[in-house]
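Let's inspect a concrete specimen:
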Amino acid sequence: MTFAIFKKASFAAITATAVLAAAPSFAWCPGNYAGANVNGYGNEVGVGNAGCGNHTQVDVYGNGNSTIAVTDGHGNYTAVGTAGYGNGTYTSTNGSGNTVGAATIGVGNTTNINTNGNGNFVAAVTTGTGNYTSSNVNGSGNVVAIVNGN
């Protein structure tokens, strides 16, 4: 099991995170992609390659960019940002499972990376400032990180 969670002093994110589980490569499957931006200043982008599942992004009063990328993945990917200033990035390669990110009033950057992992990764930040990174490489199990405040 190889799990790593790195947090800089003050932690935050326009979207806090969770990463997913692994699987071999799958045949190309379009899936569903939804992007919604309400009174936000930024871009909502969803990209899926050979992914089967649902990809949803919601940004309310957010200033920044949200990006979701899935390669050969089966599962659900959700990013939610409320009153966030910064960037949220989700990347899954050969993953099968669920990825969930949620941040409220976060200022900073959130990065989520999962490569050939089995398990679920969940990170949540509320009213934080700083940067957050979680990564899983060829691991199996669960990693949970929750931060409230600074």
Notes: Residues 25-75+82-95+115-124 form one domain. The CA atoms of residues 20 and 97 lie 5 Å apart.
